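Re: the request from the purification team.
They wanted to know what the chain is likely to look like in 3D before they choose a buffer screen. I agreed to run a prediction and write the result into the notebook, where they can find it.
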Amino acid sequence: FHSAGGIYVMNADGSDLTRLVDGGRPTWSPDSRKIAFFTTSSGIHVINTDGSGLTQVTTEPGDFPAWAPDGQQIAFMSRRDGNDEIYVINADGSGLTRLTNHPGSDMRPSWSPDGRQIAFVSYRDSTGDIYIMNADGSNLRYLINGHYPDW
């Protein structure tokens, strides 16, 4: 979990609380061996659940990391090109690909269980709508009005 003091892990019964690192929005890898998280100053990082192996995956600030079901890629939101867009990168930090390109903010990516699609929130109009696209950014389509509140 994340608190003002950083990212922590603990047993399901609340025992063995361990602080791992400073950062926010932690998300478990599909095999539960790693955690992806963001920092506001230096981007997306990955760390082993025992606190070892801290790896910086991106060098630009990013947010809302989401693991692909196979654990090989991470989708995330970044303002690296001046606007909130969805990107995907290999978990080792290689292969950065921008998936969206729109003046409205695109954020909160979420992978389909089979890893073939990514859903996300977009402020292309006045409210946060839900869009879906193939994992390579193709076949973008509107799904539903999410009535997501402004941040």
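For the purification team: DSSP finds no helices and 15 strands in the chain.
Please add any questions underneath this entry.
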